[in-house]
Amino acid sequence: MFISEKEIEVRYAETDQMGVVYHANYLVWLEMGRTQLIQDLGFSYAGLEKDGYLSPVTNVNINYKAPVKYGDNVKVRIWIEKHGKLRTTYGYEIVHTDGTLSSTATTEHVVVRKEDFKPVALAKIDAAWDSKYKEIVKES
Questions:
Q1: Domain enclosing residue 72, as ranges
Q2: Which residues cross the membrane (predicted)?
């Protein structure tokens, strides 16, 4: 299984009144991880958008295990959990530098045409990208 990693240095602005990272910021980190994975595979989400397509999130699930605080450094680990004709599920772990698991997550996405949000199979847009996802997917 191919796993990509993105390092995150926690900024003060990402924390809440309790001194821990505000839960919504994890969504931003997941996006950063997805972008890193796509780049590591040699593709470009910005290029997908330029070609007239989007990949909106249709579902997100985050399980918080241990807090992350200002000044901490964490890694977002990301992989392809599932990849079907229209839907891709990404898997994530956010891990402290000492190896402590902070959270786990999944996001589901579909590719749609920008003009009308009609779903389109990734294989029809970029066969190489689709093939790479099928090659590295966790679940066969």
A1: 4-136
A2: none
Contact 99, 72 (CB under 8 A): no
Q: How much is the pTM?
A: 0.95
* pLDDT one-digit tens code per residue, 69-122: 999 999 999 999 999 999 999 999 999 999 999 999 999 999 999 999 999 999
Instruction: Point out the catalytic residue in the list 16, 98, 116, 130.
Output: 16
Residue 140 has pLDDT above 60, yes or no: no
Residue 74, both tokens: 């964490």
Q: Is 16 a catalytic site residue?
A: yes
Overall domain count for the chain: 1
Q: Domain holding 56: CATH number?
A: 3.10.129.10
**Residue 14 DSSP label:** G
92 closest CA partner among 14, 10, 36, 22: 36
